[in-house]
Amino acid sequence: MEIIMRTGNKKPPMSFWGIGPLFALFNIVVMGTALALTIIYPQTFRFNVPAIAFYILGAVFDGFGLFLWISGGKQIDACIMKGILATEGVYSIVRNLIYSGSLFVIAGIAIATQSWLLLVLLPVSYSVLKVLLRSEDSVLTNAFGEAYLQYKTRVNAVIPNLNRLKEVFFYPVETQKISDSLYAIKNRDVNIFIYKSANHYICFDSGYGDGEVLCELANLDIDRKAIAAVFLTHSDYDHASGVYDFTQAKLYFGKAEVPLINGKRGRFGIFYSNPKITRDFSLLEDQQTVTIDNTTIKAIYTPGHTCGHVIYQIDDEIIISGDAVIWQNHFIKPFYRFYNMNHKKALASAEYIMELEGKYLICTAHSGIVPKA
Predict the structure, then answer these.
(1) Distance from CA of residue 280 to its chain's centroid?
(2) Tens digits of per-residue pLDDT, 125-146?
(3) Backbone Cα Rg of the chain
(4) Residue 324: which of 234, 237, 255 has the closest Cα?
(5) Is 9 a member of any domain?
(6) Which residue from 26, 46, 168, 334 could staple onto 350, CB 3.0 to 4.6 Å apart?
(7) What is the DSSP letter of 79?
(8) Is 13 a member of any domain?
(9) In this structure, are 330 and 296 located in the same domain?
(10) How many separate domains does the chain show?
(11) Rounded to two decimals, what is the model's pTM?
(12) Which of 372, 371, 369 lies closest to 173 in space, CA to CA?
């Protein structure tokens, strides 16, 4: 694995580059020679089939390989500095991103150049890599013990598990009771959270509205009629579509979100709009508080993901962060740029959350729960 962490020793368990130089040297010599022969003797080492499909398929393989390569490289430095084992994000589908990406790039070149020689040698390169990885596996097992062994059993070393591709971006916690007063409910790829006040339950976000949340409430032995209020962090489909499951509850969300829920502003310009909310609701100003029984909920404007995104602070103990931030490989980050309406504001909102004074349990919508020291 390319990310070799510090484990409290004076020196890292192995070099920063791991077996990378050896694997690179093999590919430069062997695969480079095969490519050169293909170029010099095309009649011998190419299929020579005039089909644009080879170029397109080769570009797809190269693009995916570069995606793995760049994604892995972006996380290595931070993980090494923190001395941690990366298992989330892209590392949830394959353990050795850079090495895997290299093989995909080589495969893409082989397909685009129609080199049967490169394709024949590709399994050889894979076999060499598997042998070289034994030394890294040994070091990582010694460094991280059971944590690495469990990670190793569920994630492939080199071949990405594309069935888990969505987990690269979204990995909510399973439905469970977090504490005496806090519950998490998983609805597809999103978490909503339930907080228990003295006499009522308070719901934060509402999910897809597909009935799964209601089933999970029943599994937790929570009567939905006991939910007194629903607080939306924002109006995206996966957070707001379930508001009609709680018609007896009072609905709250940020005033700045109104253009999205009345259709006057598109979520992605003219291409997509959030679902309209036609039931009664109450609008919250920035820093406004709502008290239910003995519980105080403060709305804090955190624009960026949407124009009116709000996080909720519960009794100075819990932050319901919605999509303001994600938790990935032990780092709190702004939500993914692609999904943010204004990424510059999203960066500022994430920084604001990290600078809040006090210790909080941060409940994210798509990446679990993390304590903020």
Answers:
(1) 33
(2) 999 999 999 998 998 899 889 9
(3) 25
(4) 234
(5) no
(6) 334
(7) H
(8) no
(9) yes
(10) 2
(11) 0.79
(12) 369
